Amino acid sequence: MPEAASFVLETGVEQPDAHTLHPDTITVAEPKEQEVLIEVAACGVCHTDLHVIKDEVAFPKPAVLGHEVSGIVREVGPGVSHVVPGDRVACSFIMPCGDCRHCAKGLEDICENFFNHNRLGGNLYDGTSRLSRNGEPIAMYSMAGHGTYCVVPSRAVFALPETVPLADAAVLGCSLFTGYGAVNTVASVQPGETVAVIAAGGVGLSIIHLARAAGAERVIAIDIDDEKLALAQELGATDVINSAETDPVEGVTELLGHGVDVAFEALGSVPTVRLAVDILDDGGRAVLAGIAPVGHTMDVDITKVVRRKLRILGSFGAPASTAMPEVIRLAAEGKIDLEKLITHRFAFEETGQAYQLLNERKILGRGLIETNPALS
Questions:
Q1: Where in the chain do CATH 3.40.50.720 domains reside?
Q2: What burial class does residue 185 get, using C-beta atoms within 10 Å of its C-beta: 0-12 exposed, 13-18 middle, 19+ buried?
Q3: Under CATH, to which class is 179-314 assigned?
Q4: For residue range 38-76, what is the model confidence (pLDDT) as tens digits?
Q5: Per its UniProt record, what SUPFAM superfamilies does this chain match (predicted)?
């Protein structure tokens, strides 16, 4: 069983903030059946982890966070044959069990065992964690990637071609994976459609990038940060609206003469969800991909939704078995610009500082912890 340097979120912290993570040495158990032990090359910095750090999303503690991982396979458990030790891999943050009623229908993105065992309990699917400290279990948020080693259910592990940089590939497993699910699986964006993306952070920028790749004719980025809007244009936005300076509903109407076919909400707040509905054209689709703090509810005009035949759709990741190979293919073919999407890179010991910068809205695109540069 390897010892892993990891950043741990402790229990008993009265007011968690982005400084709460601290380095420690923990024990990582060997992989069990249909599991893979990975030496981590890199792990993404995601706002969902920040929600857990700030206690806006309930999760057991002590815990190791981090759910956007790439690395090298070091050991495989019984029943694993699609990857072998030495393989370069990226992992999807949704780790489908393959056995529950949703997985049986192909709805891996709402796998019951993933949510019930992992996101509620911090465990893998036998009801236990693979992490411990002095014999006491430590909760795993997805695969617990903010460590030098992690154990991942095999259905969430995907081999990488040599043409995809190993460290950069970490962001394929959440930011791009979530964006792909929103654009291709839920919205099914068609060539020639008009799209708006509200909040040009890591996921929002991925949605912009992928919407253009899907053939959207106009992609309007909406944010309050001019630097993020400039980056959105580099990644494919045809138009930008600074909503701190211009009413976005009026701005969209001025650009198009009407609303958009699809509006993506990538922040997770009551005002931005309402805005996603308000900027739709008749018959349009509002796709909600941002995670909101617990208890926040939608505030939309019901009559508008009914009379204008609007659709409000939730999107959480994607089916891993089909979406991850497609995201990896797009990266291998150069259709995803990982260098532009990753705007901030951090050393492993800077993990706490990375989340502080994320909390201060100072990370423009995606932040990346380069856990072990020697592997890349």
A1: 179-314
A2: middle
A3: alpha beta
A4: 999 999 999 899 989 998 888 999 999 999 999 999 999
A5: GroES-like (SSF50129), NAD(P)-binding Rossmann-fold domains (SSF51735)
Q: Phi, psi (5° rounding) for residue 42?
A: -160, 160
The rounded radius of gyration (Å) of the Cα atoms in the chain is 20
CATH class in words for 3-174+318-375:
alpha beta
**CA–CA gap between residue 358 and residue 365 (Å, rounded):** 10
Instruction: Report residue 169 as tokens.
Output: 């590939």
The label of the residue with tokens 């993506």 reads 264
Instruction: Of 374, 373, 368, give the one whose Cα is nearest residue 46.
Output: 368
Give the separation between CA 101 and CA 312, rounded to whole angstroms: 24
- The Cα 18–Cα 356 span in angstroms is 5
178-200: per-residue pLDDT in tens? Answer: 999 999 999 999 999 999 999 99
β partners of residue 93: none
- Quote the CA–CA distance of 368 and 345 in Å, as a whole number: 5
